[in-house]
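Tutorial sheet, problem 5. The two components below are modelled jointly, 683 residues in total.
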Amino acid sequence: MTKDYKQMWNSLDINLGAHDGLLAVLSDAYQNIYLSQHNRPEGMKYFDFVISEVHGLRIEEILEAKKEKRKVIGTFCVYVPEELILALDGVCIGLCAGADVGSDEAEKFVPRNTCALIKAFMGFKLAGLCPYIQTTDLIVGETTCDGKKKAYEIFDEITGGKMYVMEIPNMKGEDGRMLWRNEVKRFAKKLEAITGKKISLEKLNEASKIVNDRRKALQRLSLLRSFDPSPISGLDALLINQVSFYDDPVRFTAKVNELCDELDERIKDGTGVSEKGSPRILVSGSPMAVPNWKLHAIIEGSGATVVGEESCVGERNFGAILDDGFSSVEQGIEKIADRYMNIHCACFTPNDERLKDIMDMSQRLKADGAIHYAIQFCTPYMVEASKAKKALDKKGIPFLRIETDYSTEDMGQLKTRIDAFLEMIGKGVRA
Amino acid sequence: MKIGGIDIGSRYIKYVLLEGTRLIDFQRRETGYNPLSVCGELLEGSKPEKLVATGYGRYLLEVFENTETITEIKAVARGAKAVFPKTRTIIDIGGQDTKVISLNDKGAVLHFEMNDRCAAGTGKFLEIMARTLGYDLEVFGKYCHEKIAGIKINSLCTVFAESEVIGLITKGEKREAITHALHDSIVSRVMSLIKRVDIQDDVIFTGGCAKNSCLKRMFEERLQRKVYVHDNPYLQAAHGAALHAMDSSYKQ
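Model answer (structure tokens):
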């Protein structure tokens, strides 16, 4: 980090001692997992910088925005319509939930067998380790799973009443669509109330363009990973997707496009992060919030390349573009609602669209195998794994099911499984 | 040319030495706290010209000795196929891992399942329970003939299962009956992995736990198939690693 942020963190009630420890662990992990990679694109320097300033410069920027009376909205899920937040000059931030932090604190409130992501967002707050949560004016939850929706009730008390929960329907029929459109309208009203502003057509158009441009940049990145050899590692692509949740969207888009220009050149030269013909893996399942790099690190450490993430931190976040041809705010809000209904989360039943996405991605990205990743106790994804296996079996694409959490105690066992999987798909452990 | 295979497991290190395809030496020692030095001792007596390592600790040799490695899944598949040419399904229960592997008719791995990070259904579970009941692990399986209806170990967790066993002991239940229930609980646990693969004959049972005749019998009852066990079920992974070393030295 370039400067001393102690005073800023202190003003945000951060537990300074524990926070120093967290940053040290993060910095070591980043060094070992990221900076040790070979042949990285130059354009990753920006993202290295963003990570090095994850709790520094970006927080400072957010505090500056707050001085300009802009509201900070924290989220945990890709269903929260960011366009509405930006149309009211808000700052939208995906909150910390990707590390085994403060689980002992979280377990005072939630059972031990709660998924790592829920324990982490509670733990980060309870242990005083997430400056983002401290800057928020509103935290938006959603009813995507039982664990989250019940935990939000408790989180509301812990955060002094900052929670606002959107109801996500369970089915995608007409009733579900109506419910969701109403939820998006209700959210727009809530945002208007806390900002004291009205959403204008002009602002909504502007916001829609910002978010769509970011989606298009991430789609471009995704497409470039379909080349063999991939011009970028799965770890780096995952990082970019993670950063997309908290970086300034306009700057982020510009940086991703710059990186993609460089990747275009690498593809022309045949430069990649691995040898041509090394095993290509599609990862599918639960989200990997920053700094959860565990699975990608093991896969790529064994000589394969992760070429795509069918995940909320990945394709589900940017796969659908908003139809921004609307002529009124009301129409815009409906189109926004419809766009978000088109995300294929395992919280829906049935959810065959997700299986189609997995098949499409494995084909487009020329995957040699698929690894299904579920965070332990994430029932919707754990259950859908068998459907994903069946669908991939039909296409003859090898499949491996992994259930894990944020701890490192099962790294050896996971490595054995992944190595054996790579041996099985026939290209050897060491590429 | 002498070729070696070494399987660094969680409880034991197994070492196989081949001359041609003939197995000329097999040794097994406790892994202990310094597996690298145990490997050194094993290799010292009969140094092979080529060596491949497998098992949980294979990276130790890769990092320190630059030894080629393969996973125990590939190794055990190769080793089982060598002694039972018709192998299509392998149940391998070692110290801390349980694996079920399905092979095609050429011996290539098609699919595998492993226990999640938990000692339930592994050799470690058996070891702890044998100790709780005052048996030696080697003879534990000989004392499980007495099935008593109503005595059942329900817990999948080793720690909780041990409390269950203690509960049964203090209720005065016969230890032979508890032993039966414990074996039954392991088999149930492993059956849930077996059901995830497409099981085909021949079924081979490998790993240290295959020494336990009770487990073999229970698998046969549950699967309604013959289950084959080699005289020395410890050696399949190490043997497979050695055979892999031989294959790759021919390729060169």
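Marking note: Chain B has a mean pLDDT of 91. Full credit if you identified this.
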